[in-house]
Amino acid sequence: MTALSSFKYVTATRTNVINPIINRRNKLIAKLQEQLNIATAKMNGTNYNTTRLKIYTDAETGERKTVEVAKVMREWFWITENGKVMLQVKYGAATLYLNAKNATAIELGSMEELVNAIKTLQAATADGHFDKAMDAASEVTRKGFGK
Questions:
Q1: What is the pTM for the complete model shown?
Q2: How many CB atoms lie within 10 A of CB 32?
Q3: DSSP 8-state secondary structure symbol assigned to residue 7
Q4: DSSP 8
Q5: CA–CA separation, 34 vs 78, rounded Å?
Q6: How many whole angstroms separate alpha carbon 118 and alpha carbon 9?
Q7: What CA–CA distance (Å, rounded) separates 129 from 84?
């Protein structure tokens, strides 16, 4: 028995079209994961930094070069004067409405609650809870380009 005989072979075609709803959910889940990493690092007393690749053309030689630069990470949470932690959920530059009463933030008691809340928001996003809010935010952004 060869190593290749253990695979299950099927005929399949790959589609290039991704469902836009699933794509939006995946983007929001990825951004929530960044916020989770930032919150966890703050709890541990460290900083969370990540890098991205930037391609630029060298002015002297005309060569295209790729360098790693620090990625700007903006926190979606802050601590109020009374010690409460406030959390907003953003889709692009827009703040999402979190419920039917158009609330834009979640009030939490501690950083530990913040970490749990972000995990809960990731699960809710995967279940489609924020689909309408993301659609509304996208619509507002689209209208801004149609001046």
A1: 0.80
A2: 22
A3: S
A4: P
A5: 15
A6: 39
A7: 25
Rg (CA), the chain: 21
pLDDT tens, the chain, 147 aa long? 578 888 888 998 888 888 889 999 999 999 999 999 999 999 999 989 899 999 999 888 889 999 999 998 899 999 999 999 999 999 988 999 988 898 999 999 999 999 999 999 999 999 999 999 999 888 888 888 875
Which amino acid, one-letter code, is at 68? E
Select from 70, 109, 67 the least CA-distant residue to 87.
109
Q: Side chain identity at 51, as an amino acid letter?
A: T
DSSP 8-state secondary structure symbol assigned to residue 131? H
Q: Where are the domains of the chain?
A: 18-145
